[in-house]
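Hello again, I could really use a second opinion on something today. I owe you a coffee for this, so here goes:
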Amino acid sequence: MVYIALLFLLIGIELIYFKIAEKYNIIDKPNSRSSHSAITLRGGGIIFPIAISIAFFLGYVSWPVALAVVLVAIVSFVDDIKPLSQLPRFASHVVAVGLVFYDLHLFSEALWLLPLVFVLLIGWVNAFNFMDGINGITVLYALTAIVSFSFLRINEASLPLLITLGLSCFSFGLFNVRKKAKTFAGDVGSISMALFLGYFMIKTIIDSGQLGYILFFSVYGIDAIITIINRLLKKENIFQPHRSHLYQYLANEMGYSHILISFIYAGLQLGINALVIYADTKGYLSLFFTGAFLLLLTFIYLLVRNLVTRKMVLRNS
């Protein structure tokens, strides 16, 4: 009953936000880099940090993690309304990562580990944000990760927190996983969710001692990294908006349904996560397995990307 009440509360908060966004014209206008063509309410992902705040008051999450998520959410929301320079955004990310490190007691670990985890977490937050480009992709992928974390026995004590965030995804998804979305997550949603997922990934790896769970983020990770490498080779500014991800090629150039692509990405990741969990229960989830599986996924991704780009060239010739 508590979770049913929480679900209706989150949906109600989302509806109230829509009224505020409409009144103050918080909208996303399509441009040449966009994958959508209609003006849409921006910032519906504000429900994610709100859910974290509720989880904190219910005692489901610690204050450093809640503060970290809310901090990046506030700065990102301001950026959604009026674009900020890189400095305040990066500064909020640095402080938030510091709070995550404090919560996970990483400052007591070897000094060489901190810069590595810092770069990976900052990279993940930005990669997750860049991947937010079509209806449904962010919320479905986030929900896939949350469900997968929930299946791990080591996360049993965190189930109330994971369920709360899962309900926020469902609430947002009602208005985003549509052919014509009512709202987009905005940076406030994608960055706050990315930070939470990154935190929970590090927590899961520490608690389990199993690095192989990094495969839970493999679909997004491979698409983001290969796209960045490809743009660097073309001497493009990787910090500028673009339409170079594989999912963007499929949606914009090949004309596939946004919702179909989003479900394919989430479905593939869910299948991989199920395999990872199974491999761990059988004792196969070693560093060799993780590395070999990443190489295999990267090879498959490159094959598909090459096939799609060839079809794009043929269609445009």
Q: What stands out?
A: The first strand starts at residue 27 and ends at 28. The radius of gyration is 19 Å. Strands lie at 27-28, 40-41. The CA atoms of residues 19 and 25 lie 10 Å apart.
